[in-house]
Structure formats: C-alpha cells, structure tokens
Write a structure and sequence with these properties.
Blueprint lengths: L4 H7 L1 H21 L9 E3 L1 H9 L4 H8 E3 L14 H34 L2
Antiparallel strand pairs: 1-2
Length: about 120
C-alpha cells in the first residue's frame, strides 16, 4: 500500500502510519522466525523516525531504510544471534495494537465519508 496525495488528504498521517506499522510487523516477524538462526542480527524500525521522514516527503521505503536499526542484545548469545524472543514478542504485540488502532481510525473515517456521500 503506497500513499498517494489523495489518501494522504483523506487519512492524514494515519495512512503513512499504517504502511510503516505493516513494514515493522514484517521485520519483527522475521526476527522471531530467525530466533534460532546462528549469526542472525535482529533489526527493528524506529517508528517515530520513520514517521517523521515519511511526513517530510520520503517514500515508505526510504523512511524504513533510514529508520532501521540493529538491536543490541541484553544477553549476547554464543552463536552471534541477537534475537531475544521476549523482547521481540513485546515489540510485536505493541506494534499490533498500534496497527489495529490506526486501522480502526481509518475505518471510522471511511464510514464517515460513506455516510456523508449517502446523505445520512
């Protein structure tokens, strides 16, 4: 989903936030899936940095690339993997709640526009 000026006008910052939360969800899922992969380096998106870049005109890909960071583990593992499953699960859950809230806002906005067009 790529924001256009039309969607940005209708949904404001929420369209960009939904895109970024979706990208972050994929990254966190990848971290969890690679929890047992030797040498895997966990990454995350600094959401605030990505959203700021997105609202300043960067594409979603540019914003994500500029805000992606490697995680520094609290307890480094012997095999070089930096995924800490508990931290990943918390980040995933928090992101899922944010995604759901953003989606609910957009749904409400669509419902309002639909009612206005119908004359309700």
């Amino acid at each position: 989903m790529s924001s256009t000026p039309m969607t940005e006008g209708l949904f404001g910052i929420h369209a960009a936030a939904l895109e970024l939360r979706s990208q972050r969800m994929g990254l966190l899922t990848s971290n969890i899936a690679n929890a047992a992969t030797p040498g895997y380096k966990a990454r995350d998106i600094d959401f605030a940095t990505a959203l700021k870049a997105r609202t300043e005109g960067a594409s979603t890909d540019q914003a994500v690339a500029g805000a992606t960071r490697y995680r520094v583990p609290v307890m480094p593992s012997l095999d070089g993997n930096t995924v800490e499953i508990g931290n990943e699960q918390v980040a995933f859950s928090e992101n899922a709640v944010g995604y759901s809230a953003t989606l609910s806002f957009i749904r409400g906005r669509v419902d309002t526009i639909t009612r206005a067009l119908k004359g309700d």
